Amino acid sequence: MKIKKRPDGGLKKKLILFILILFLSYQPLNAQILDYETEEFISEILKNITTVNKLNKKIKFKINSSNEINAFVDHQNTININSGLIQNCDDYVALLSVLAHEVGHIDLNHISIRKKTLENKKKYNNLTFLSIIAGSALSHNSELLQTSIIGTAALTNQYIEFSKEQEKEADLYSLNTLNLLKTNSNSVIKLLETIEQKLLTKGFSKDKQRLSTHPYFEDRILLIENYKLNKNYSIDKDLNKRFNFIKAKFIGYRDNTDAIDFLDEPYKSYAESISYARNGNLKMSLESLNKLIKVKNENSFLIETKADILFSYGFTDEAIRFYKKNLEIYPQNFYAQIRIFENIKTKNLSNDEINILFNKNKNLLYKFYNNKNILIKYLSLAKILKKNEWVEFFEYILKLNQYNKKDIDYNFTSFKKTQDKDLLMLIIKFEKTIS
Length: 435
Fold this sequence. Notes:
The longest helix has 28 residues, at 153-180. The chain has helices at 17-26, 36-52, 83-88, 92-107, 110-120, 127-133, 142-148, 153-180, 187-201, 206-211, 217-226, 237-254, 257-261, 267-278, 282-294, 302-312, 316-329, 334-342, 351-360, 362-367, 372-384, 388-400, 421-434, and strands at 2-4, 32-34, 60-64, 71-73, 78-82. The protein has 435 residues and is mostly helical. Helices cover 62% and strands 4% of the residues. A five-stranded mixed sheet has the order 1-2-3-5-4.
């Protein structure tokens, strides 16, 4: 599991104070988690959701490192999933229900509707603000939204009614999805109860729930109980096994000893092996992990976890060996490919061999062109090969990446004069991202 820190994005001093408060409270600058196993699993779940709902659209998502049990859709229709949500779902069905709720917001065009409503009132049409108020059923900052922004009782009531209706629609969309997928679990209700208890301990009382843009928890639970979910529907055991390994991995990296104690085997041992590594006990970590790896038909991503642990302890060559083993099973694991590529030793390679490396890994460069490690590696290769145009471009991008992107002006005009079509393609990718 790799964690990619978001760039520090200082907000301008002229921003209104309440927007600053809301942005920092609702969407903190958490690190983004990059994990192929988790991304593949969530992609599969989202594909199941969109297929049964006949939604011909690829849903974008990202995973944030945060203990908050939350998921939300931002103004770009990207689902943000907190690691705390994954850690607190009893099974994959609970996670599926939340993702289906978020897909419901997208499918039912809720963000555009909210945007239009607010624009008609000529208030609060800032896109960052819209991403904040488009939170999921699990958002717990709506009381701050109400008290900080909406000044009059009339507007408050009108806004809450509108938002509650959307949330109910998304809830029904989620429940209907469970029926279409012929799955059911008490974990959905249990997740809501867990969230409510955590919020109550933070002072989010029922009086504050009344001001929330989301329905009462008890009303939501009642909606689930009264909905015609087939009690005989079961859960997919293979999917749930995969989810449990992912959940254990997240709990292990979070080093949550209380949560680890509640896990069943082999998931408990998996989380413990990661926790051992986090606490400096490499020997116990590898002993525990090796026992799991030796079990036949077990999770093959354990090999990647072993590689990650070895790499974090500086055993680069050993780690690369296990990343390559993982790639034999999952050739599309881009994160393993990146780790291998950035650690290739070029000292004893000929120019022809380096040129092959340069061309062979361009797919990684084009897909992860903002990855600093890839840019640094390509810069070193370009210098050896005397590809001066590439060198100048990589140096320019790496230099600019030292600053806040909001504080600088990118100028690609001179670079776009190149006759190298591959370089031009890369430049255009950067230009589109900035624009």
